[in-house]
Amino acid sequence: MSSQAFVDRVFQNLPRSGGKFSFSAWKHAGQPTKEGVGVLPTSGVDVEAMAARIMDVDHYRGNVDHVEECRTVPDGAYSPPQSVRFYQRIKIPVLGSVHHELVLQDLGERDGWRVLAWHQHSGTDALNKKQGARSEYNVGAWLLKGDAVGYALSSAPRRDDVGRLKFAALTKGADAGATQVVQANIEGMLRWSKR
To answer: In 111-158, which ranges are E strands?
Structure first.
């Protein structure tokens, strides 16, 4: 699985920014959650500094909200700082933990944006569901330029790893709260990139 098809859909649905945060979401291929992208106009984005923070997965814990654990998984197929395979466990308030292995890649420039995107690695299959629900899918992207930051995401837990009510909360609930979550992720990464 690659993030490229997702990035293509993100660019097809990129919201038009009118000087404030904007968000766009769409259904794709019968998935239980919508895909979405938000863009926050902001001045003085240091694209290189922010890209370096995004690729610094070993320091997400303590710097990125809700990250309980995050570490590089050694894999000769991926070479930082252009690409990295990593394990991540996030704590979703009230609902518990979700974890996965991801591959994050710097895809370079596209339509004036620096694009860093990730997709789920098959290593997720071997994770212990007692430590958190495994993701069924998780794909996303950061879009960076000097006057705006975008964040796009599509994810859902494995239905077999959670009960019916929790699955609904993590899918329908995620869609309902996506706008706020995406904006908060952008603002948090901006703060970290300036430290």
So the answer is: 113-120, 133-145, 148-157
HEC readout, 2-52: CCHHHHHHHHHCCCCCCCCCEEEEECCCCCCCCEEEEEEECCCCCHHHHHH
Cα–Cα distances (Å) from 86 to 59, 83, 147, in that order, read 12, 10, 29
DSSP code, position 170:
H
Low-confidence ranges of the chain (pLDDT < 50): none
Express each pLDDT in 18-66 by its tens digit: 789 999 999 999 999 999 999 999 999 999 999 999 999 999 999 999 9
Residue 1 pLDDT:
53
What would the two tokens of residue 50 be?
């922010």
Q: ∠ CA 11-12-14 to the nearest 5 degrees? A: 60
